């Protein structure tokens, strides 16, 4: 690998629970990735703009409010509209199993639910980042 | 508490016991771990004796229940007089749906209401605001105007129940709506019992539902203190919250420290605004978490009570004992719930319930087993409430006051937590107080470091979470989770349209204009907000006016 993987950790929507997002951000950084964290209350438009501006390889989003079905797919669609469909999009949070197939169909590569070790997210990102391939 | 000679003998014999007996045993049979720590990573000795609490002065450090420094509890008879208030936090979808859940909970023997609002309400947006899209009714009930509030409390007599509302940045608006609903029921404000959370500092630190910058936020809070001391005297005007600080990953000592540091900031602000300490301080209340380390949590509650009493007496010169009395609500630890084998959570919640009760809480919310997955179903909520009832009626722990007092371990830990919290408060004082320490990211960083360390310990297997990193099984996805009907958003939008076409819009606009002028000056905003609410101005309109005048808080992002 000639350069580190760049990841945008993002909190879409109005949800203020960012413990998970911050823990993941640090774990990814400790695994050698470059991490940018957006802070709270980002609209899908803001997330996509930051992702493109910062030229990231991965967007990792966290939601615990239940608004994932609305917000995750919008980020994927906006990335596609900007021609950035090669950015890997993953999500995490309190997300019921029933919602996961729909989210994957919408283009979210993987959903990490409560109790997932950070090592699993790191492995997934390393194995699936498309831009460095 | 023992004489010196006895203490010396205990120390000597303990030393011999460890050096001879234990050392020999360890060669053959080592202990399970090299070092033992609490849930918050504090070191635990093998054995505690009277020597560990040799400096404890019973009358000075513990005293009697209902008396300074309140270590043993705030009421003289505690649960022999009456049990804690069993108060389940609930609210979802529309006011109609939530009203049904409240009536169900009251029928099941719950003794107080606790309202959960959805995120748009908590951040001061109406349901038809673009940022509300996808969030309406999800984590709580959607309240756009007094109309929704009337439905929420329909058939619930507000002079008979006490209501806690988890609302912070727009707390003044929701309190005004509650007062207005009571008026319509013929209940005057001086008869109202309840609590608004109204704690903006921990929103900046940990919970995230802030709107305005620090200064106008502190003004709104002191406006509420002042207004309620005259008009709503039985109302708890703030619930200074460690709950969310702990959920964000803090240790037990940090939970106490940062909560009390926030408390100091509120008292400072109110005193600076000219309020008399004993006029508002008796209505301050607190809110803590209960995690799994039973004895450490009990010690935490006792330490928090003693430390707050000292701060109020010594630092602020309060004279009224009620100003020194830390009354608190407790909620069991949401972050301790596992999505794996969710029924195990019932047991965790039972342990945490014991911690809260042995710690002397005034009210308690017990989490439901399925909350790592979704909002709880009615059945799960009932088990959670029954857990409290079993502890109250069957366990026997409520029959005497502060039964763990005098335990060498619990008293030593109470001292440790108090001391660690005092050290943090000193450090925060040096940084210029809690608001400055938050601006600098100091408090957030301390919490994040603890959270990260905790996660790494789990991943390294140093900490066992049953069902997550040990004793796992293959599981089917859970069935029967509560789903919020996605049409709630549309329904609220429709209700808002009807409201806006049905009310006297000129009157509403006038009252919003008056509020704006008042916000630009320095008068108490509560009466203006109440007037706007009565004219059916929406929450979003009222907060919109205040946003125009005050601006918005910008978060310092710390990693």
How are the SSEs ordered, and which strands pair?
The complex is a heterodimer of chains A (133) and B (559).
Chain A: E1 6-10, H1 19-30, E2 34-37, H2 44-53, E3 58-63, H3 68-81, E4 88-93, H4 100-105, E5 110-112, H5 118-128
Parallel strand pairs in A: 1-2, 1-3, 3-4, 4-5
Chain B: H1 4-28, H2 58-62, E1 85-86, E2 89-90, H3 95-107, E3 113-115, H4 119-122, H5 146-152, E4 162-165, H6 171-185, E5 193-196, H7 200-207, H8 214-231, E6 235-236, E7 238-241, H9 243-247, H10 252-272, H11 277-280, E8 284-290, H12 294-315, H13 321-324, E9 328-332, H14 344-358, E10 363-365, H15 378-393, H16 408-430, H17 434-439, H18 442-459, H19 488-502, H20 505-520, H21 526-534, H22 539-550
Parallel strand pairs in B: 1-10, 2-3, 3-4, 4-5, 5-6, 7-8, 8-9, 9-10
Notes on the structure:
The complex is a heterodimer of chains A (133) and B (559). With 133 residues, chain A is α/β, with parallel strands linked by helices. Chain A has one domain (6-128): Rossmann fold. Chain A has helices spanning 19-30, 44-53, 68-81, 100-105, 118-128; strands spanning 6-10, 34-37, 58-63, 88-93, 110-112. Chain A is globular and about 40 Å long. The model of chain A has no long low-confidence stretch (mean pLDDT 95). With 559 residues, chain B is an alpha/beta fold. Among the domains of chain B are: 4-53, no CATH class; 158-459, Methylmalonyl-CoA mutase (TIM Barrel). Chain B has 22 helices and ten strands. Chain B has helices at 4-28, 58-62, 95-107, 119-122, 146-152, 171-185, 200-207, 214-231, 243-247, 252-272, 277-280, 294-315, 321-324, 344-358, 378-393, 408-430, 434-439, 442-459, 488-502, 505-520, 526-534, 539-550, and strands spanning 85-86, 89-90, 113-115, 162-165, 193-196, 235-236, 238-241, 284-290, 328-332, 363-365. The longest helix of chain B has 25 residues, at 4-28. The model of chain B has no long low-confidence stretch (mean pLDDT 96).
């Amino acid at each position: 690998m000639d350069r580190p993987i760049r990841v945008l950790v993002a909190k879409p929507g109005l949800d203020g629970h960012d413990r998970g997002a911050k823990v993941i951000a640090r774990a990814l950084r400790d695994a050698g990735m470059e991490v940018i964290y957006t802070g709270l209350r980002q609209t899908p438009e803001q997330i996509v703009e930051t992702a493109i501006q910062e030229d990231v390889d991965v967007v990792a989003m966290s939601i615990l409010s239940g608004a994932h079905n609305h917000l995750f797919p919008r980020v994927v669609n906006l990335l596609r509209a900007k021609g950035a469909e090669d950015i890997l999009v993953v999500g995490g949070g309190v997300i019921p199993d029933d919602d996961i197939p729909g989210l994957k169909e919408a283009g979210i590569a993987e959903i990490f639910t409560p109790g997932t070790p950070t090592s699993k997210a790191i492995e997934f990102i390393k194995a699936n980042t498309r831009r460095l391939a | 508490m023992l004489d010196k000679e006895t203490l010396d003998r205990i120390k000597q014999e303990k030393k011999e016991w460890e050096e001879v007996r234990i050392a020999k045993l360890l060669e053959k049979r080592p202990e399970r771990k090299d070092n033992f720590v609490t849930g918050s990573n504090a070191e635990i000795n093998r054995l505690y004796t009277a020597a560990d609490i040799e400096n404890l002065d019973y009358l000075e450090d513990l005293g009697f229940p209902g008396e300074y420094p309140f270590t043993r509890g705030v009421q003289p008879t505690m649960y022999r007089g009456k049990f804690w208030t069993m108060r389940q936090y609930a609210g979802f979808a529309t006011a109609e749906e939530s009203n049904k859940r409240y009536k169900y909970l009251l029928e099941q023997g719950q003794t107080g209401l606790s309202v959960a609002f959805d995120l748009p309400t908590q951040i001061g947006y109406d349901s038809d605001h673009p940022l509300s899209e996808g969030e309406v009714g999800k984590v709580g009930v959607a309240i756009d105007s007094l109309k929704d509030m009337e439905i929420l409390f329909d058939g619930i007599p507000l002079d008979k129940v006490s209501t806690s509302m988890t609302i912070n940045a727009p707390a003044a608006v929701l309190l005004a709506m509650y007062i207005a609903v009571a008026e319509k029921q013929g209940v005057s404000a001086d008869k109202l019992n309840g609590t608004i959370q109204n704690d903006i500092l921990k929103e900046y630190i940990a919970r995230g539902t802030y709107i305005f910058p620090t200064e106008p936020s502190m003004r709104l809070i002191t406006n509420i203190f002042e207004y309620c001391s005259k008009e709503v005297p039985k109302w708890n005007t703030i619930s200074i919250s460690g709950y969310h600080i702990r959920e964000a990953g803090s240790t037990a000592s940090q939970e106490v420290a940062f909560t009390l540091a926030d408390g100091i900031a509120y008292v400072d602000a109110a005193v600076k605004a000219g309020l008399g300490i004993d006029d508002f301080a008796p209505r301050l209340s607190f809110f803590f978490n209960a995690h799994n380390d039973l004895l450490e949590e009990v010690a935490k509650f006792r330490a928090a009570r003693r430390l707050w009493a000292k701060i109020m007496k010594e630092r602020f010169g309060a004279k009224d004992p009620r100003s020194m009395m830390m009354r608190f609500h407790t909620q069991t630890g949401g972050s301790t719930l596992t999505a794996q084998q969710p029924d195990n959570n019932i047991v965790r919640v039972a342990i945490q319930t014991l911690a809260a009760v042995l710690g002397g809480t005034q009210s308690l919310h017990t989490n439901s087993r399925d909350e790592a997955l979704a909002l709880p179903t009615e059945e799960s909520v009932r088990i959670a409430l029954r857990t409290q009832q079993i502890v109250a009626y069957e366990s026997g722990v409520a029959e005497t006051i502060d039964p763990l007092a005098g335990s060498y371990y619990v008293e030593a830990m109470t001292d440790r937590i108090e001391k660690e919290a005092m050290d943090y408060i000193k450090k925060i004082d040096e940084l210029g107080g809690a608001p400055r320490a938050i601006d600098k990211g100091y408090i957030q960083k301390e919490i994040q470091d603890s959270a990260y360390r905790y996660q790494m310990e789990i991943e390294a297997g140093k900490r066992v979470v049953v069902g997550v990193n040990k004793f796992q099984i293959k599981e089917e996805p859970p069935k029967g989770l509560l789903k919020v009907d996605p049409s709630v958003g549309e329904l609220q939008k429709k209700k808002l349209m009807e409201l806006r076409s049905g009310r006297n819009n000129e009157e509403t606009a006038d009252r919003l204009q008056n509020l704006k002028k008042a916000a630009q000056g320095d008068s108490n905003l509560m009466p203006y907000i109440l007037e706007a609410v009565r004219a059916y101005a929406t929450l979003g309109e009222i907060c919109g006016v205040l946003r125009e005048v005050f601006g918005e808080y910008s978060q310092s992002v710390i990693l």
